[in-house]
């Protein structure tokens, strides 16, 4: 399988783009004409630059407003094409993209367009150049790949073929099954992009909001399955017009791009028999069975304070690492590690971010397979130093600074606690509060990191995403999206902020980067948990009375229930499936916090309608000078 990406997809000048694209492991690039025109080097030098970067030029594009022009424009258009052929020969590329005409003076007619392409094919053949025709979703006469194919078919010239672009087909909701009948060798290149499902003008959507396959809402896998059925063997080439990507890190976006293509090819190969391109042979997406532990990087002083905080929440000190300054606190199936080492990754994380939950360990079916798949998707493996007899827990770096560890039941990793930890004498006061598992992990990140994290999780693990929603912070909207396993064993909420006045934005600033901002623990009886916590000296986040009056009215709650909620500072939500009750801790310092939840019935959400009230209460809790606009 050959992978390629259009230079227009990433930031930087042409040299920077090529470096990042090559480093991410792509085989080729589409040279977008503007990137070429604005770079100060001859076509020959640019061609050499591309090849020196270990890349080939898969396509030169776009050539606009060609077919169906009336004279004298028609002749001029052919002259213009010849000039571009000159450039292409200097660059060292043999494939040109012609996108469908958008000019108001263009004449329609399938045969007229086919005649123009036949003549262009003749001229191209003299130079061993091939020309592919792409239907833009907003083309004046041609805006559907089926019509573009009909023109190519009637042009009936070996140097004229079709170019498919998933965006144009899928954004117009054209049936992808129509692709299957096209002979694969008549498709000269396939461009891939996803996009969010937003109701807007297609040109605007395409030029600003395309994203990597898997990051958006379009059925790109179905599209690619249909392409694979044609016998197409050419490159899978990304063409992503996106303002955030073009303003972001070329390196990160290139890695995401390559990751999206490997994952796409893998999904296609697993769902469509006998695909034409050789898809990567990698382990399947890992099923996550649960969160095995969450590890905080911290200092000795902070660790004492954090441990006290957790004791009040019903956690017991349960074990100590045999050779490292790592303490295990446990309640039910929840394991929390406090790492106060003065060397190594945890320590560098502490130095940069202060006390924070820098690592999550997931229980999967096969930990080594999980790492192997992640590596094939461009993730960085991580290895910690271990003492003799201790386990090396397979791990990878997350998108930001954090780590994801893996354990499984099938190897010695299933005995992690017995092998690496010594039990400690139980001395803690405080009673257990009925918290039995991690319900979800709340990650906060800059808004432009959200697509990268989304792709990271969806490509490595067998998770689904929920639709993007806006969380209402009194200081602005925060974008939020969830990835979760079908059975709820792993749920991760991701909040993307770009405004420092929001609670999430404030956290990113205080923490010097993205991290886990909250952990939600599940209880089967939140009122009993609230009682136990109270006895331990826990003081929950205070929710104003107005909220309870509103909830009582909104859901028609009986007043006794409303009073119970109010007295315990428990938030309430309900949908067709069930109910959700939430209790919040105050923030630890200015940073993370804990949430306690009870899910009743089949409730699958996260209490988004309660977010404004919870956030306002949290802001009141923070130091006034630390929180402008609170
Ligand atoms: O937005 C455009 O003009 C444009 C140009 C070339 C393409 O391949 C495309 O998909 C869109
Ligand atoms: Mg295109």
Return the CATH topology of the largest domain. TIM Barrel
Main sheet makeup: 9 strands, mixed
Number of distinct beta strands: 26
* Gyration radius, rounded: 28 Å
> What is the number of domains?
3
| Number of helical segments with 4 or more residues | 21
| Name of the CATH class of the largest domain | Alpha Beta
The residue-averaged pLDDT reads 94
Q: End-to-end span in angstroms?
A: 53 Å
Q: Characterize the overall form.
A: elongated
GO molecular function: 3-dehydroshikimate dehydratase activity; metal ion binding
GO biological process, one term: 3,4-dihydroxybenzoate biosynthetic process
Enzyme class: lyase
Cofactor: a divalent metal cation
Description:
The chain is of the alpha/beta class. It has three domains: 3-271, Divalent-metal-dependent TIM barrel enzymes (TIM Barrel, Alpha-Beta Barrel); 288-423, 2,3-Dihydroxybiphenyl 1,2-Dioxygenase, domain 1 (Roll), CATH 3.10.180; 435-626, 2,3-Dihydroxybiphenyl 1,2-Dioxygenase, domain 1, CATH 3.10.180.10. The chain is 35% helix and 25% strand. The protein has 21 helices and 26 strands. Strands 14-15-16-13-9-12-11-10-17 form a nine-stranded mixed β-sheet. Strands 18, 19, 20, 21, 22, 23, 24, 25 and 26 form a nine-stranded mixed β-sheet that branches. β1 (3-6), α1 and β2 (28-32) form a beta-alpha-beta unit. α5 (110-125) packs across α6 (145-155) and α19 packs antiparallel against α20. The longest helix is centred in the middle third of the chain and has 22 residues, at 250-271. The protein is elongated and about 90 Å long. The relative contact order is 0.08. Residues 624-630 have low confidence and may be disordered. The structure holds 3,4-dihydroxybenzoic acid (DHB) and magnesium ion. 3,4-dihydroxybenzoic acid (DHB) binds next to β3, β4 and α8.
């Amino acid at each position: 399988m050959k992978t390629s990406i259009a230079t227009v997809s990433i930031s930087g000048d042409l040299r920077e783009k090529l470096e990042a694209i090559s480093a991410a492991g792509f085989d080729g690039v589409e040279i977008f004409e503007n990137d070429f025109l604005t770079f100060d080097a001859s076509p020959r030098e640019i061609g050499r630059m591309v090849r020196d970067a270990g890349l080939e030029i898969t396509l030169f594009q776009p050539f606009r407003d060609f077919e169906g022009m009336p004279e004298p424009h028609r002749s001029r258009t052919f002259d213009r094409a010849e000039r571009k052929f000159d450039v292409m020969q200097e660059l060292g590329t043999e494939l040109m993209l012609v996108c469908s005409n958008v000019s108001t003076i263009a004449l329609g007619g399938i045969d007229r367009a086919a005649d123009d392409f036949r003549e262009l094919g003749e001229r191209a053949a003299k130079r061993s150049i091939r020309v592919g025709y792409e239907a833009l979703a907003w083309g004046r006469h041609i805006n559907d790949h089926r019509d573009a194919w009909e023109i190519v078919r009637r042009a009936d010239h070996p140097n004229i073929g079709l170019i498919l672009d998933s965006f144009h087909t899928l954004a117009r909701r054209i049936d992808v099954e129509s692709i299957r009948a096209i002979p694969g060798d008549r498709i000269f290149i396939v461009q891939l992009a996803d996009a969010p499902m937003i109701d807007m003008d297609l040109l605007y959507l395409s030029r600003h909001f395309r994203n990597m396959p898997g990051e958006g809402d379009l059925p790109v896998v179905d599209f690619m399955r249909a392409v694979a059925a044609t016998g197409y063997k050419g490159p899978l080439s990304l063409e992503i017009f996106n303002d955030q990507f073009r303003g972001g890190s070329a390196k990160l976006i290139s890695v995401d791009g390559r990751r999206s293509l490997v994952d796409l090819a893998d999904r296609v190969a697993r769902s469509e028999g006998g695909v034409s391109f050789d898809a990567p042979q990698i382990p399947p997406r890992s099923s996550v069975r649960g969160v095995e532990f969450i590890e905080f990087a911290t200092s000795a002083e902070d660790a004492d304070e954090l441990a006290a905080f957790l004791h009040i929440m019903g956690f017991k000190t349960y074990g100590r690492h045999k050779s490292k300054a790592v303490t295990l606190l446990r309640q039910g199936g929840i394991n929390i590690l406090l790492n106060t080492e003065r060397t190594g990754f945890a320590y560098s994380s502490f130095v940069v971010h202060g006390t924070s939950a820098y690592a999550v360990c997931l229980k999967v079916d096969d930990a080594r397979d999980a790492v192997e798949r992640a590596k094939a998707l461009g993730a960085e493996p991580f290895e910690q130093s271990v003492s003799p007899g201790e386990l090396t827990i397979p791990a990878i770096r997350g998108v930001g600074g954090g780590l994801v560890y893996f354990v499984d039941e099938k190897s010695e990793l299933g005995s992690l606690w017995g092998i690496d930890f010594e039990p400690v004498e139980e001395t803690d006061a405080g009673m257990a509060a009925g918290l039995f598992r991690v319900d979800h992990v709340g990650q906060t990140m800059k808004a432009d990191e959200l697509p990268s994290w989304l792709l990271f999780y969806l490509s490595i693990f067998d998770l689904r995403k929920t639709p993007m929603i806006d969380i209402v912070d009194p200081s602005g909207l925060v974008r939020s999206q969830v990835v979760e396993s079908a059975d709820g064993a792993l749920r991760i909420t991701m909040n993307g902020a770009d405004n420092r006045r929001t609670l999430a934005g404030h956290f990113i600033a205080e923490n010097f980067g993205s991290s886990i901002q909250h952990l939600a623990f599940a209880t089967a009886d939140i009122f009993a948990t609230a009682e136990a916590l109270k006895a331990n000296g826990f003081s929950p986040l205070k929710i104003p009375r107005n909220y309870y009056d509103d909830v009582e009215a909104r859901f028609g709650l009986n007043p006794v229930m409303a009073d119970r909620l109010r007295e315990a500072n428990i938030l309430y939500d309900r949908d067709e499936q069930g109910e959700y009750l939430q209790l919040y801790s105050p923030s630890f310092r200015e940073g993370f916090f804990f949430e306690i939840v009870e899910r009743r019935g089949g409730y699958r959400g996260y209490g988004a309608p309660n977010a404004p009230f919870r956030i306002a209460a949290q802001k009141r809790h923070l130091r006034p000078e630390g929180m402008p606009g609170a």
